[in-house]
Structures are given as structure tokens and as C-alpha cells.
């Protein structure tokens, strides 16, 4: 992949992974992985910043960010707030491998290639619908998070999320600025396993309409999702309100199953990733 001043000089792409056949974030991941494996980056010192790497590789910052997220999953780097991205030198995978298949994978990917703004974050008494979804007593303490998610500066999702209070430390407010919530739960040791989701329609009230830059009363796509861990315990209850002009689901159905992809506007990247 050419950089700003010509081809990079840190090794060849593996023969089995032709650059023209790979998404750009995968090309960047492989090139950085080769550097990390060869000791190009000194352990204990941060890698160049996202902006510098994006200029070098001739890609967008979000592409570099996604590549670094994959390298973190491999155990090759640690992303530390205020310190940048540090090589680990181990290459050992985390205890629970993040979800990388099917719809949950697509949801994680969506979080990695969009930006989030946290509007509210705090422990509250669970309303009855959230308590029922999480299998808790009404009024039990839960973490409530309200967010807006944007793609290319355009807001497309207003979400309200409830989690059991004992998981609040996994999704602190600053963590959610850079890390998808399901990934944060995995990093905390929660083995996210499955989800049950329903889809329907709703009308935008004034607060949601202002957040999504639309008119009050316009139709929205409403999604309610309960995510469970490997023991079957509900660990997340989400209600998402999506701008119908900026977001759509695309599902390919077959007798033996297949991938479900999440698309935003007309951005339809290969394998649901960008």
C-alpha cells in the first residue's frame, strides 16, 4: 500500500493476502503486525499516532483505528487513554476472544467505524421494562447510558442502554468514547455469547428528533436488544432509535445461515467492515 511519499519499506504483504483483495484496515493491520512482530516498534514506547499512521499509509484515521483495534484483540498492542498505543511484545490473545462472526460481529464493527457522544451515564433505579429484560427486581440498581452515534458527522442512532450495576466499571464514560460497549464487556471478562433482538417502528419525540436532526413525529426504526453472556445471564438491554434515511439492515437468508450485515447510508464495505 503506498504511503504519502511512496511505498512503505517495512516488508512485503503475505502472498496469501493480496492487497487488492483485502479491505484497507486489513492491509494496515497486516503491515503493522509485521512491524510489531519484527520489533520495529520498541516495547514501552507508543506507536506513532493515528493521524501520522493515516498519512503514512494514505488511509483515513478510522481505518487505522480499526486496524489497531484488531491488533489489540490479538494481544499485540495495548491502547491506553492518554498514553497512546503501546506494543505488548506478547502476541497472546485475550482470555475471551471478541465476537467475530454474524450479527454481533457486525454490531461490534459498526461501533468501531463510527463515533459516539455520551449524553448521560450513571447508576439509577431500574425502570420496570429494563428490570424485566435484565432479570432484575424492579428498582434494582442499573447503569443507564444514553448515547448518540454518528457516521461522517451525521447522527443516525439515539440509544438508551441498561446494564447490571456490577458491570458499571466495565463501561465507564471515558471508555465508551473509544471502545464499543460489547468489546468493553469482553475486556472486562464478560464472555458475550448471544442476543435476542426485536425490530419495529416508532415516532421521534422532540428530544430524539433534535438529537438526530430530524422533525418531531417522523418515523424511526426501533430496535430492542437483550445481550446475554455464556451462562445465559442478561448483561445488556438496549433500545436504539435509528434515522431511517441513514441506516438500514441487510440480511442474506439461506437454508444453512449466513452473515447479517449492518449498513449506514450508502457506505457498504466488504464484509461489513471499514
From TrEMBL:
InterPro entries in the record: Bact_HTH_transcr_reg, Chorismate_lyase_/UTRA_dom_sf, Tscrpt_reg_HTH_GntR, UTRA, WH-like_DNA-bd_sf, WH_DNA-bd_sf
Entries under Gene3D superfamilies matching the protein: Chorismate lyase-like (3.40.1410.10), Winged helix-like DNA-binding domain superfamily/Winged helix DNA-binding domain (1.10.10.10)
PANTHER family: MANNOSYL-D-GLYCERATE TRANSPORT/METABOLISM SYSTEM REPRESSOR MNGR-RELATED, MANNOSYL-D-GLYCERATE TRANSPORT_METABOLISM SYSTEM REPRESSOR MNGR-RELATED
Protein name in the entry: GntR family transcriptional regulator
Domain of life: Bacteria
Keywords carried by this UniProt record: DNA-binding, Transcription, Transcription regulation
UniProt keyword annotation of DNA-binding present: yes
Species per Swiss-Prot/TrEMBL record: Pseudacidovorax intermedius
Any Pfam family the entry gives: UTRA
Xref: SUPFAM superfamilies: Chorismate lyase-like (SSF64288), Winged helix' DNA-binding domain (SSF46785)
Lineage of the organism: Bacteria, Pseudomonadati, Pseudomonadota, Betaproteobacteria, Burkholderiales
CDD domains with a match to the protein in the record: WHTH_GntR
Gene Ontology molecular function: DNA binding; DNA-binding transcription factor activity
BP terms from Gene Ontology: negative regulation of DNA-templated transcription
Ranges of residues in domain HTH gntR-type: 22-90
Amino acid at each position: 500500500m503506498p504511503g504519502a511519499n511512496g511505498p512503505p519499506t517495512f516488508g512485503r504483504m503475505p502472498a496469501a493476502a493480496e492487497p487488492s483483495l483485502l479491505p484497507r484496515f486489513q492491509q494496515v493491520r497486516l503491515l503493522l503486525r509485521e512491524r510489531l512482530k519484527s520489533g520495529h516498534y520498541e516495547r514501552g514506547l507508543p506507536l506513532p499516532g493515528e493521524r501520522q499512521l493515516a498519512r503514512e499509509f494514505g488511509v483515513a484515521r478510522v481505518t487505522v483505528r480499526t486496524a489497531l483495534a484488531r491488533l489489540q484483540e490479538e494481544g499485540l498492542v495495548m491502547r491506553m487513554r492518554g498514553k497512546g498505543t503501546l506494543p505488548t511484545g506478547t502476541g497472546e490473545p485475550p482470555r475471551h476472544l471478541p465476537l467475530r462472526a454474524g450479527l454481533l460481529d457486525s454490531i461490534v464493527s459498526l461501533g468501531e467505524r463510527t463515533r459516539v457522544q455520551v449524553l448521560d451515564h450513571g447508576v439509577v433505579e431500574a425502570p420496570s421494562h429494563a428490570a424485566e429484560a435484565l432479570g432484575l427486581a424492579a428498582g434494582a440498581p442499573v447503569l443507564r447510558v444514553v448515547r448518540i452515534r454518528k457516521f461522517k458527522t451525521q447522527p443516525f442512532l439515539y440509544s438508551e442502554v441498561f446494564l447490571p450495576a456490577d458491570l458499571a466499571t466495565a463501561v465507564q464514560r471515558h471508555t465508551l468514547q473509544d471502545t464499543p460497549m460489547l468489546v468493553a464487556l469482553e475486556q472486562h471478562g464478560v464472555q458475550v455469547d448471544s442476543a435476542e433482538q426485536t425490530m419495529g417502528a416508532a415516532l421521534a419525540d422532540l428530544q430524539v428528533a433534535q438529537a438526530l436532526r430530524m422533525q418531531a413525529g417522523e418515523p424511526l426504526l426501533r430496535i430492542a436488544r437483550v445481550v446475554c453472556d455464556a451462562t445465559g445471564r442478561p448483561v445488556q438491554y438496549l433500545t436504539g432509535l435509528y434515522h431511517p434515511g441513514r441506516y438500514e439492515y441487510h440480511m442474506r437468508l439461506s437454508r444453512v445461515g449466513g452473515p447479517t450485515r449492518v449498513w449506514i447510508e450508502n457506505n457498504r464495505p466488504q464484509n461489513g467492515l471499514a
